[in-house]
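To whoever is on call:

I kicked off a structure prediction for a single chain this morning and the downstream step that reads the tokens threw a length-mismatch warning. I double-checked the sequence; it's 456 residues and nothing unusual in it as far as I can see. Pasting both halves so you can look.
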Amino acid sequence: MLERLFKVQERGSTVRTELLGGATTFVTMAYIIVVNPAILSFAGIPVGPSTVATILTAVFGSLLMGLIANRPIAVAPYMGENAFIAFGLAAMGIGWQLRLGAVFVSGAVFLLITVFHIRSWLANSVSPSLKHSFAVGIGLFLAFIGLYETGIVMSFVAGMPVEAVARGAKVLPAPDVPVKIGNLRDPQVLLAIAGFLLICVLLYRQVRGALLLGIAVTAGLGIALGFGKAPTGVVATPFVGEYSLAPIAGQLDIAGVLRLSFLPILLTLFLMSFLDTLGTLVGVGAAGKMLDEKGNFPGIERPMMVDALTCMFSGAVGTSTSGAYIESATGIREGARTGLAAVTTAALFAVSLFFIPLVTPLQHLRYAYGPALIAVGVLMMGSVRNIQFDDMTELVPSFVTVMMMIFTYNIANGLTAGLVVYPLLKLAAGRWRELNAGSVVLAVLCLVYYIFGQVH
């Protein structure tokens, strides 16, 4: 039955490898259970219901990705988009019901352009060099997240007196160096470094489950040394009491979103989610050698359809924009090649729904899961070989994509910047015949985003 559903052997995998890959992906992205509700709480969305909505979205999206698209890619509420929903719209005085309505409508737009094959047409219009720069940028972005989460690097203002930071730029001007090396005497930082080296050794020796094994060993050692909090409970019943969905599910305001004045916000959500999904699919596709000779993701319509449906589901149950997760690269690096891995991730999220008090403290073990993100960044660097370094009209947009992605801490910013620069350089070099209609449309949309959108 599994072979008929997922074609495991046909894709050169095994059931064990798929289960292991799905579990690895879950471990590296399960932090979303804690982080997403915490961020959305600033929008006025209650944490308990938001936690359940976050998990349900991950279950729904990952399950659909496995069963419909048969790809080892997990789906959950996006980081970045959740901050835009919580903070980016706060200054405009927009209530959270209207924000959820925007999430739903943007998902409906995704669905329409996917059904009419516009979304895949746009995705396949991007040059191979740019697509591989997406993978490089996402790999370095993951590595940067891992370095920051583990404390190997930290904010320049970390450790300064609270009074100096709170008083603003007059006392503490913008630092010349925004980040600095972390406290290498901190045992948890040393644990993270050791965990990273352990994972690298296991990868070199081609040990199955290297990432998950490295996470488990590092977490076990850290807990043994006292660097882990005991859970306040073990089991919780979802959908009742503090975990009832009633306060947020179905509370979205769709009619208010359809005003002309709301168009810049919809455009921002649309482009961020579209480009995040495109970049993620190309990035994890490159990691798993799923791309064709042109750098395209074969059968991209189905993953994008799942992305659109999950986005609509997100708004309906009460959480932020969702889509394919870059952490899926960890499971793919373990050998996962089919939707069985995504179904496994969905099943683990479903189980966690009943163990929220138990799961919550585990997601604070940054020294354990952070090294896996850095290791994946190392592995994804291989895509840099496919960028045309001898052609400045290909190299510069790729460089801009990678740099903007990392140094603005936002995948969509990197993608939009690269897509704008690409046709400009082709035109300046007199090579306009190399452009296609899709790349021009994407460049125009990205320009509109920078001019009229809510850039962050």
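Update from on-call: the warning came from a stale cache, not from the record. Cleared it. Sanity check on the structure: The chain has a mean pLDDT of 85.
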